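This part of the workshop introduces the protein records we will be handling. A record pairs a protein's sequence with a compact description of its fold. As an example, a complete record with its sequence and its structure tokens follows.

_____
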Amino acid sequence: MNLAVIILTYNESLHLARCLENIRPLASEIHIVDSYSTDDTLAIAERFGAKVVQRKWTNHADQLQWGMDNCGVKADWVMRLDADEYLEPALVTEIRERLDTMPQNITGLYIRRKVLFKGKWIRYGGFYPHILMRLWRNGQASVEQRWMDEHIVVNSGETLMLKEHMVDDNLNSIHWWVNKHNNYAIKEMIDLLNIKYGFMEMDQRLLGSTNGQARRKRFLKEKVYTAIPPGGRALMYFCYRYFVRLGFLDGYRGFIFHFMQGYWYRLLVDVNVKEFEAKLAGDTSAAKLKEILKNDYNIAI
């Protein structure tokens, strides 16, 4: 195979060996962009022969684009894989059989992703299938530069969707999950503030991409969701996922996931937005927004 895999890591000792063991039969190159892990992430990476570089973390989009530009990828094809993800055997076979004979006009491949929460496949609530651009020709794609919900966008050519699945299966505790989403809420806050106040350039390439699902979700988020009053929109979104999109069929663990990810997290974002806006004290200039982000959140934009 002529395939390079890029994985972003920070303290991923729980997942990384599973991920690397899974992708090793396909990858001719494995590149780890690490954010100065303090556990044995680097030792695991080296054991599997991965090339490791370390760089200070800003956000997923910035880190992944830096990796694509600076890791010295030689392979014809590049894949993004998170440390807590793996490919199902059928997808490994499909990539092995199809990649080297892919027509030259195909520059990007979409993959369906299953999300597991506490071992439970989240099949309802609009969460499956989650369609992502994860495989592209080297040099033919770049990362949408956003603080949250970034996507790979191909620069030219055509795309197609593979038949089989990858899996997102994080094994960490609920305490870890809550802390992660606390951090995500700040990044989501930045995107929502930017939609409202336009204090920095917004990457809108996804709206012209071939990923209909992602394009539709982005449109609904920016044009519909943000128009609903804060607080109420979190409740409406949860009810839509849990009742209209049948999230209740995912059972008890599904309820926890849909409630925490679809209501608690969205409400947390709104609380952060309102708290931030109170600090503006009526001054919505770009300079003021960036000043607060730097002084109160240690985020330089």
About this structure: The radius of gyration is 20 Å. The CA atoms of residues 106 and 158 lie 5 Å apart. The mean pLDDT is 95. The longest strand covers residues 106-117.
